[in-house]
Write a structure and sequence with these properties.
Length: 345
C-alpha cells in the first residue's frame, strides 16, 4: 500500500498539480464561453412556446400547435392576395401593415412550430409520459460533447512518465532487483495509472456538468427520452444519462492509461511514447467513419470518448471489453517491464 501511494504521489508532483489545476481552469472558462450552434428552428421562439405549453404533453397541446400551424400557413399563403389588395387600394395602409407584422411573425415561427409538431409525433410514439420543456441547451450539450483533447493532453503529461522516467534515468536496474519486488513495483505503478486514468476524467466531466447546469438553469431531472431522437435509451434522467456516460468514458480512459504504460514499457523513449500515445488514444476518433459503428465502439472504446454513448451500445458488453483489454495491457506491461533495455527496440 505504501508503495502504491508513493507511486500515486509521484504522478501529482508540484509541477503536475499546476498543470492539472490550470487545465481545470481552462475547462471551466471554456464552459462559460458562449457557444453558438445551428438549429432548424429558432431557440428564442422555442423558449417562448415552452413558457406557454411547457409541462406534461397532452392532446390539447398538439391540437393547439396544429391550429397555429394552419394559421401560419394561411397568413403566408395570403401574402400575394393582401399585397394585390393594397396596391388596388382595397385595404388601408394600417391594415396592410398589421398583416405584414403577422406575416413576418408567422414566417419566423413556422420552422419552430413544425419542429414542435415533429416532437409531438415523437412523443406519441413513446411509452409513458412525455414532458415539454426547454431542452435545446441539453440537446446541444450532449450532441456537441466532442473529443476531450485537453483531458488527453493532461493525461499524457501525467501518465507517460510513470514508467518512462525509470528508463530515461537508467534507474530501473536499481529498483527492487528481486523478481517479486519488480513485479510488485510494476503492479503498483499500473494501479496508480488506472486510478489516475479514472479519477482525472471524472473530475473533468463533473466540472463540465457543473458549469453547464449553472448556465442551463436546471432540467436535469427530466427523462432523457424527452429529447428528440433518444427513444432508445432507458427511463433515466438527463443527469443519470450524463454520469453514466461519464463513468463509461472514465473507464475507457482508465484502460487507456494502462495502454500508455504498455507503450512506455515497449518504446522506452519519451518523444516516441508521446507520438504512439496520440496514435493509439486519439487517432481512432478521427477515423470513426471507416469502421462499422458497433465494431468501432466496442473494439476501440473510442466512440464513448468522442461523443455520448449510443443507445445501441450494451454497457455490460462495453464493460467486459474494457476488462479484457485491461487484462491484456497488464500482461504486456509485466512482460516488457521484466525485459532488459538492450532487448527492446
Amino acid at each position: 500500500m505504501k508503495l502504491f501511494l508513493y507511486e500515486f504521489r509521484k504522478i501529482f508532483t508540484a509541477g503536475n498539480r499546476i498543470v492539472f489545476f490550470a487545465a481545470l481552469a481552462l475547462q471551466a472558462l471554456w464552459g462559460f464561453f458562449p457557444h453558438v450552434y445551428e438549429h432548424e428552428y429558432s431557440p428564442e421562439i422555442y423558449r417562448r412556446y415552452m413558457e406557454r405549453i411547457g409541462g406534461v404533453y397532452t392532446e390539447e397541446k398538439r391540437t393547439f400547435l396544429e391550429a397555429r400551424r394552419e394559421e401560419i400557413a394561411g397568413l403566408i399563403d395570403a401574402y400575394e392576395e393582401m399585397e394585390g389588395a393594397y396596391k388596388r387600394d382595397e385595404i388601408a395602409l394600417d391594415e396592410f401593415e398589421r398583416y405584414l407584422y403577422e406575416y413576418q411573425l408567422a414566417e419566423s415561427e413556422r420552422s419552430t412550430v413544425d419542429y414542435l409538431l415533429e416532437k409531438c409525433s415523437y412523443y406519441d410514439s413513446l411509452d409513458g409520459e412525455a414532458v415539454f420543456f426547454y431542452d435545446t441547451d441539453w440537446a446541444d450539450f450532449f450532441s456537441h460533447s466532442g473529443y476531450p483533447y485537453l483531458l488527453a493532453a493532461v493525461l499524457f503529461l501525467l501518465l507517460i512518465p510513470v514508467f518512462d522516467r525509470e528508463f530515461t534515468s537508467n534507474a530501473r536496474p536499481l529498483l527492487l532487483p528481486a523478481v517479486s519486488g519488480r513485479k510488485k513495483l510494476c503492479i503498483c505503478k499500473l494501479a496508480a495509472l488506472a486510478l489516475t486514468g479514472f479519477a482525472v476524467p471524472m473530475v473533468f466531466f463533473a466540472l463540465r456538468y457543473a458549469v453547464f447546469v449553472c448556465q442551463a438553469g436546471g432540467g436535469q431531472d427530466f427523462c432523457v427520452r424527452n429529447l428528440l431522437g433518444y427513444s432508445g435509451y432507458p427511463d433515466i434522467s438527463l443527469a443519470q444519462y450524463y454520469f453514466t456516460d461519464a463513468l463509461a468514458k472514465a473507464a475507457a480512459w482508465s484502460v487507456g492509461a494502462l495502454l500508455l504504460g504498455a507503450v512506455s514499457n515497449i518504446v522506452r523513449n519519451t518523444v516516441f511514447s508521446f507520438f504512439l500515445s496520440v496514435v493509439c488514444m486519439v487517432s481512432p476518433a478521427w477515423f470513426a467513419g471507416i469502421w462499422p459503428p458497433l465494431v468501432y465502439e466496442y473494439a476501440f472504446c473510442a466512440a464513448p470518448l468522442g461523443k455520448m454513448y449510443g443507445a445501441a451500445i450494451d454497457l455490460r458488453v462495453f464493460a467486459l471489453v474494457c476488462l479484457l483489454k485491461a487484462a491484456a495491457y497488464i500482461l504486456i506491461n509485466l512482460k516488457y517491464w521484466e525485459k532488459e533495455a538492450s532487448g527492446i527496440l
